[in-house]
């Protein structure tokens, strides 16, 4: 064979093999980067992101955007190198994102559960801030179960067999005196509906000797109207803070955002505490690219947020009340606490 051809093949073959490896071989990494942002004061697919029905709401302007982190799995070697070289993406070992003892579906389901829990916490935190009184609130009604079809999630229980209950402790004590098969009368309040009474035959549960009502309850602020959060396919709990702020903005006079484009993130607890989240720098980039000028940062994320200056005013918050105060200070032209 001609020596030139041999030399050419020797030079080209490794490049062809390497190119094939880049296109075919997958790597055990997940790419994390800036994800989409959503204005909690706006609409998605024709629906209000935060939809409040059954009470007066007030006009809002500006933006209160929640932020997300995008994930790419099943990367080829070439894709991973391209994303890493872009400087916008972070490569994480796959086992840290999808633990080996869980399937992808289980992890996604856990993230969905966290998101739904964050919606509930956001509602309770906002109602608590607005001073709505606490009630024995149904966090869940098990279906199938004795109460399915008779009670609904969000109902407030006022009495059991005519005996008033004001706390979960009192509610639990009333049920502790019952037996499976016994009928109980539950007086309840329902959102956007008249108060009602349910007569329920208690079931059995192997974990207890007393009758089983088939509900999960908690002491939580209760309001007679509904709050729905209309975002799908957004996993994790970090939208809670921005959801709570949107609820407060819609239920109060004045405007928290005003003309400003504000974005942020933070896990919200039912008592209004704001906890840290992951991927803060990716979320800051997403917020800046969407047009935000101010970013609300959980206090415990401030060090990481300061490490990546993307041109945003970083406002630190550790509670819902302080977040509201910070936004009011901004609207008045003042300087809120910063990272």
Automatic annotation (TrEMBL):
Residues 233-330 form the Lon proteolytic domain. It catalyses: Hydrolysis of proteins in presence of ATP. It holds the Pfam family Lon_C. It is an enzyme of class 3 (hydrolase). PROSITE patterns: LON_PROTEOLYTIC. The active site is at 238, 283. Keywords: Hydrolase, Protease, Serine protease. Its EC number is 3.4.21.53. Belongs to the peptidase S16 family. This is endopeptidase La. It comes from [Mycobacterium] zoologicum. The lineage of its organism: Bacteria, Bacillati, Actinomycetota, Actinomycetes, Mycobacteriales.
């Amino acid at each position: 064979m001609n020596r030139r051809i041999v030399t050419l093949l020797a030079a080209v073959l490794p490049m062809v093999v390497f190119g094939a490896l880049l296109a075919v071989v997958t790597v055990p990494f997940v790419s994390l980067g800036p994800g989409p942002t959503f204005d909690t004061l706006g609409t998605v697919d024709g629906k209000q992101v935060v939809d409040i029905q059954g009470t007066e709401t007030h006009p809002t302007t500006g933006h209160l955007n929640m932020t997300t982190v995008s994930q790419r799995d099943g990367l080829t070697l070439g894709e991973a190198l391209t994303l890493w070289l872009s400087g916008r993406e972070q490569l994480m070992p796959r086992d840290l994102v999808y633990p080996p003892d869980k399937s992808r579906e289980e992890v996604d389901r856990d993230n969905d559960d966290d998101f739904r829990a964050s919606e509930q916490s956001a509602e309770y935190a906002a109602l608590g801030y607005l001073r709505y009184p606490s009630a024995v609130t149904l966090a869940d009604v098990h279906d199938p179960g004795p109460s399915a079809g008779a009670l609904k999630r969000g109902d407030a229980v006022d009495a059991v067999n005519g005996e008033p209950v004001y706390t979960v402790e009192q509610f639990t004590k009333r049920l502790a005196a019952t037996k499976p098969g016994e009928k109980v009368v539950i007086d309840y309040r329902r959102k956007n509906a008249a108060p009602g009474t349910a007569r329920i035959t208690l079931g059995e549960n192997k974990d207890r000797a007393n009758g089983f009502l088939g509900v999960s309850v908690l002491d939580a602020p209760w309001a007679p109207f509904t709050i729905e959060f209309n975002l799908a396919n957004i996993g994790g709990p970090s939208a809670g803070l921005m959801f709570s702020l949107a609820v407060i903005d819609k239920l109060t006079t004045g405007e928290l955002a005003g003309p400003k484009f504000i974005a942020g993130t933070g896990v919200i607890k039912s008592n209004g505490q704001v906890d840290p989240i992951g991927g803060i720098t990716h979320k800051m980039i997403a917020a800046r690219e969407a047009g935000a000028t101010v970013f609300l940062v959980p206090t415990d994320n401030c060090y990481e947020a300061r490490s990546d200056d993307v041109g945003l005013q970083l406002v630190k918050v550790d509670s819902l009340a302080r977040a509201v105060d910070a936004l009011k200070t901004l609207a008045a032209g003042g300087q809120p606490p910063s990272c």
